[in-house]
Amino acid sequence: MNSALKEEVNKRYNPASPWQVAEMEKLRELRVGFIGAGRMASAVAQAILLAGEVQAVNIFASAPSNRNLDKFQTFECKTTHSNLEILENCTIVFLATKPHVLPAVLREIASAVTKKHVVVSMAAGVTLQALEELLPTGTKVLRIMPNLPCVVQSGAIVLARGTCAEEEDVALLKRLLSHSGLCEEGPESYIDIHTGLSGSGVAYAYMFAEALAEGAVKMGMPGPMAQKIAAQTLLGAGRMILETGEHPAVLRSAVCTPGGTTIHALHELEKGSLRSTVMNAVEAATCRAQTLGKR
């Protein structure tokens, strides 16, 4: 593990009570594996490491080539080209392959999956039913759908449990994933909605940030400065929604003063049907995710 990451882990690993110490030590003995070692897998692994929850020597990753394992090797995790080795060494197994590859991977590992394993799929479009049909009866299966900001531990994840997943499995997974960002549980149907809302929604936010910055550039502000302020504006607005618990409309209304700049700006956004357009975008992305899941 590089020195910067070690320093961050040591800083964050500071439990406050004997009970927390015992819980943390128990977790640090947990073995977590990733079949597939792409960007999202490494992001989840890094968040777990930064939290000090699991030791690097207890995190395993498999991928067909060394190139895909570079990030995990930087973390000083254990790496392999054997998917079966992940099952042999780990209790929590994340399936982080491309969706079209996953059925073949499931057939490969099925004979090694036991009741001790908790199998967590990160693959889009592969349903819990499909996962359970390709794995031994009674396998504890869950699905998660993370989004890109998990890479900076500020993501949003929706989790759905299969028929055999137990409460303690869900609680453990939520704890591990909470270090990547917000983690919410819901029925499996929410995963496609989450794709339209948050998976694709990240791109909507980027587009809005870009438009904000370009508006400022048009009015004379330097581009780099405008970009940073636009990003901070979105970050701060999101944080206020989460921390106050207020409906966005309430917070929006609080910014508007009679005859002021904000109400004039909002009028222009309403002329462009901003809300309707964004709702249509969420619907379009959700429907596309549902279509892909039926293939």
From TrEMBL:
PROSITE patterns in UniProt: P5CR (PS00521)
Coarse class of the primary localization is cytoplasm
Specify the pathway: Amino-acid biosynthesis; L-proline biosynthesis; L-proline from L-glutamate 5-semialdehyde: step 1/1
Q: Where does NADPH bind?
A: N83
Gene Ontology annotations for the cellular component aspect, listed alphabetically: cytosol; intercellular bridge; mitotic spindle
Question: Where, in this chain's numbering, is NADP(+) bound?
Answer: I35, G36, A37, G38, R39, M40, A96, T97, K98, P99
Quaternary organization: Homodecamer; composed of 5 homodimers.
**What protein am I looking at?**
Pyrroline-5-carboxylate reductase
